[in-house]
């Protein structure tokens, strides 16, 4: 009998595309088609695919040392990256710990917050996505699909409402007031502040629906964190590194974190993640309490250094803001022509299009059909949201005015196919 090995169906494919090669905002498939990539490997290839500077930095590093194991011997790219991060990290967050993935960094942040406060509980916000390891999945409330079937999850996690104004049918101020009131109520009913180590929140909900967190909400969390000695952790894995038109997503508010988490866009596709906190906080974790064989890999760190240089030299944070405004304005024009679109929102190059039925309820069927149809138009997109009714657009930070215009054209063509 012939034996055949296949990829596990656990991997749910969003498109049938197989890549031959990719450059900038474009993926060239083995089918001979060119696809405008508004997915960037889920917000990872920040400087575009195979930016020559990133490719060169990685190539050069491969010839020097690939793996040095950072607890055995230190390597130069990680020292250089740490110095460069100092220029962009929020004031006071002067100590950095490296891992490989967003999930690992989330776990590191949670462990640090628990060790630093001596408290057990973590408060997360409805719709948040923080990763897929068991601990990270325990903190994720962006959909039951991320945790169903493999309970029990990690204990000590409590969920508070997120100010989702559009879904509640409220204005933003009312939604923020409600969510903060519910948080205070959670303190009275489930986890007292004295038992609460941290708030964990994304400045823009990612997999939970591409929803910017209202600045007043982040500021309300900051005020409560200060009042109760709770660590405020910003998960900037998807919203950070220029994605929202500011270097960090939280910079759209006045709130600053006690611990910040970064990954994805920091190295243009090479696996590396980091958390940063004040040295005094990091000193509360005993040496060896965190780590890993591959953490802070030399080639990834070299790619991260090149990525930060490219972002700075090519003005990519500003490009993200300007091209993001262009994208959102175009989407709002399209919304006026397609009643299936209930809401368009986002910051910078992180834009969500929420599909709703005529009664205002989520419409995942249309969202999925549109996402599929964009591939046929030569545009790669993804869905997100607890109900799966949001199409998200995540172009590379190097995206041009012409590419955004073309993306909008192709998106509208896909809508026309689906809605007839
Ligand atoms: N946090 C956020 C906000 C994310 O978007 C993700 C990935 N989508 C993660 C954490 C987990 O990162 P990773 O997949 O690298 O483990």
Automatic annotation (TrEMBL):
GO terms for molecular function: transaminase activity. Its cofactor is pyridoxal 5'-phosphate. The keyword Lipid biosynthesis does not apply. It holds the Pfam family Aminotran_3. It comes from the Bacteria. InterPro entries: Aminotrans_3, Aminotrans_3_PPA_site, Class-III_PLP-dep_AT, PyrdxlP-dep_Trfase, PyrdxlP-dep_Trfase_major, PyrdxlP-dep_Trfase_small. Keywords: Aminotransferase, Pyridoxal phosphate, Transferase. Gene3D superfamilies: Aspartate Aminotransferase, domain 1, Type I PLP-dependent aspartate aminotransferase-like (Major domain). Belongs to the class-III pyridoxal-phosphate-dependent aminotransferase family. PANTHER family: AMINOTRANSFERASE CLASS III, LEUCINE_METHIONINE RACEMASE. This is Aminotransferase class III-fold pyridoxal phosphate-dependent enzyme. It comes from Sinomonas flava. The lineage of its organism: Bacteria, Bacillati, Actinomycetota, Actinomycetes, Micrococcales.
């Amino acid at each position: 009998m012939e034996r055949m090995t296949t990829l596990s169906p656990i991997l749910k494919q969003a498109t049938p595309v197989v890549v031959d090669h990719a450059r900038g905002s474009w993926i060239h498939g083995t089918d001979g088609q060119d696809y405008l990539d508004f997915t960037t490997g889920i917000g990872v290839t920040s400087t575009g695919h195979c930016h020559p500077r990133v490719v060169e930095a990685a190539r050069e590093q491969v010839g020097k040392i690939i793996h040095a194991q950072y607890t055995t011997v230190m390597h130069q790219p990680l020292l250089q990256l740490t110095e460069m991060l100092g220029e962009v990290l929020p004031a006071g967050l002067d100590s950095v710990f490296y891992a490989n993935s967003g999930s690992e960094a989330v776990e590191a942040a949670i462990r640090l917050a628990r060790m630093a406060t001596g408290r057990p509980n973590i408060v997360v916000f409805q719709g948040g996505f923080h990763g897929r390891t068991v601990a990270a999945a325990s903190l994720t409330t962006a959909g039951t699909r991320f945790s169903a079937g493999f309970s029990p999850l990690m204990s000590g996690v409590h969920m508070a409402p997120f100010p989702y104004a559009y879904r509640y049918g409220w204005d933003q101020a009312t939604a923020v007031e409600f969510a903060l009131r519910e948080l205070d109520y959670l303190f009275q009913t489930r986890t007292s502040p004295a038992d609460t180590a941290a708030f964990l929140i994304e400045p823009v909900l990612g997999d939970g629906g591409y929803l910017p967190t209202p600045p007043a909400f982040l500021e309300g969390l900051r005020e409560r964190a200060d009042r109760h000695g709770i660590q405020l952790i910003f998960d900037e894995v998807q919203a950070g590194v220029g994605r929202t038109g500011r270097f960090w997503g939280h910079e759209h508010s006045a709130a600053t974190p006690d611990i910040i988490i970064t990954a994805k866009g920091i190295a243009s596709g090479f696996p590396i993640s980091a958390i940063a906190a004040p040295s005094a906080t990091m000193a509360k974790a005993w040496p060896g309490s965190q780590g890993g064989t591959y953490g802070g890999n030399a080639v990834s760190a070299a790619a991260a250094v090149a990525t930060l240089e490219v972002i700075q030299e090519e003005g990519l944070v500003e490009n993200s803001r300007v091209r993001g405004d262009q994208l959102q304005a175009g989407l709002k024009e399209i919304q006026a022509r397609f009643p299936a679109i209930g809401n368009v929102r986002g910051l910078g190059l992180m834009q969500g299009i929420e599909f709703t039925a005529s009664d205002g309820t989520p419409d995942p069927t249309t969202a999925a059909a549109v996402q599929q149809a964009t591939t046929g138009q030569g545009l790669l997109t993804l869905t997100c949201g607890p109900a799966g009714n949001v199409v998200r657009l995540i172009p590379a930070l190097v995206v041009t005015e012409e590419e955004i215009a073309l993306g909008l054209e192709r998106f509208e063509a896909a809508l026309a196919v689906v809605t007839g």
